[in-house]
């Protein structure tokens, strides 16, 4: 009797502790339901991804057709005529610095024949050409050359936090934020802009080489 009892105890000690779980009918049902759910969910996820790609493709085609239409040209002209000057003034931290000469420099190209069509074709090209390449955000990390990013702290068109994100995405890049400046630091803060660029070039190529190149 004792011998049989010892054998049963030894057998129970040698059993895999997970065997009881495996024999548990509720655990078995749970595993079966999990597998069944995966078999159902995975095809649905794949189908949804395909639908998103299809919708994106159709959307781009429809948008391309619209951008090349007469209506799109009329809308572009109307928007530029109504909001163009306001957009230029909004690009500066101090709009009082904007002279008629500055405004003419931005509006003169808009009097060129076919500028509106060129703008729309440029937009179409960005939509169609980008489809064959990885997203720009995934390619920024591949940049290996020295990069300087300059922005104004009061940029209302492209806020400075965008420049900060860009700087983090490009390895080893330098970020300079010019105070009391809007979207156009190279025009609004000319001396500070040149100073920042000069310091960057000196840090990359050396002061002597920069001076020789400038002379």
From TrEMBL:
Residues 130-189 form the AB hydrolase-1 domain. GO terms for molecular function: hydrolase activity. This is Alpha/beta hydrolase protein. Residues 1-21 are annotated as: Disordered. The chain crosses the membrane at residues 36-56. InterPro entries: AB_hydrolase_1, AB_hydrolase_fold. Signal peptide: none annotated. Keywords: Hydrolase, Membrane, Transmembrane, Transmembrane helix. The keyword Membrane applies. It comes from Thalictrum thalictroides. It comes from the Eukaryota. It holds the Pfam family Abhydrolase_1. GO terms for cellular component: chloroplast envelope. The keyword Transmembrane helix applies. Residues 1-11 have a biased composition (Basic and acidic residues).
